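Field reference: sequence -> structure
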Amino acid sequence: MRRSVRAAMRAYSLLWKAAVPVLRSNGRLRDGWDERTLQAGVPAGADVWIQAASAGEAYLAREILCDMKSPWTDRPLRVLCTTNTRQGRDILGKLADDVHGSGAGLSVQVRMFPFDAPGIMEKALHAVRPKLALLLETEIWPGFLSQCRNLGVPVLLANGRMNPRSLAGYLTWPGLFRDLAPDAVMAVSDRDASRFGTLFGHERVSVMPNIKFDRMVGAGASCPDGDLLSDVLPRDEPFVVLGSVRKQEEERIDTLLDGLRRRAPEAVTGLFPRHMERLERWRERLDELGAEWIARSEIAGPVKPGTVILWDTFGELIPAYSRADAVFVGGSLDPRLKGQNFLEPLTCGLRPVIGPYWSSFHWVGGEIVESGLVDVAEDENDVLRLLLEAISAPVDREGTAKAAAEYIRSRTGGADAVRKRLAQFLINE
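Structure field:
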């Protein structure tokens, strides 16, 4: 390791030494503190260390491991899965339970990811001694990477994503990250591959299918019957869902609600705030708009036509998509936002309307818009126009769901590509 890198890691270590006492006051980080600091002891030895930052990456790890086989006939493949969040840990814990005793040839242990302080990472990696480290999406931890380099542990970064802002931040110290680069990077698009190549060197970067498509296979089968809401919705009136609405776009949603009331007065609207802490503000907004509304928790029978239902209960967004005639998926009408999951209504056989800001879901591909499976509106007035058109047109749920399934299936294979690359590393180790 070059002298400049060693100097950088000494400075990095000092920053962590100052930061750890402060981080103790963070409620999220206090959860699993003893594992993050190794006060609960070090992890057991493993052949592969997989770091999955949060819930999304944990699901990717699950896709990779669900069909992973040990490359050895005489013992299982030992896997350490780490994560930074409680939700991620719960998902990985369920994976470990499913694998245990299943005969899959895997042994999985789950821990919180240790703090990236070089001293902590040195202790952890010396205990685990993995043959390979797998990082998912954008997990670039200098302490972890430097200790892997010191111990000769190969590092694979898979399902890699990197936005321009992150790249600009890393390029403030390009020499450091070039020296600590993973041995191989599998990026999910040509644009992501180009950014990783700029940071780490293009010779180590390739492109793979996004594992998130593997997760979507069969999603339509889990879409519930729309009759689950038959005791809530009038049978013969259109139902419009405004799903995953974010704080930053609430004023624009006011325009949609007012427009639906004037131009489709018989329609029932289901309003689903993305965050429950916004419910009280929505109660005030609906009163200010003069809307006829009721909270979902207060409904005792089918609501009157023209009612806005403020959904204040969890777990019914997908059933609502199954019953809807038109849907707008929020988090997409304000430039500060990056979109929400519009594949959910699509797999339920309903073509969604979204706003122009959906960069977090660009991995789905622009072809999904070109194929007519998703309508991208210019602004809230355009959203209203598209919703009104959807209300007046018959919904071809079967055809839409079939086209969505074909689109998704044609882009699968990411998990298998990573499994094959893992096996190559392990066999050649």
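Note: The chain has two domains: 3-216+413-428, 220-409.
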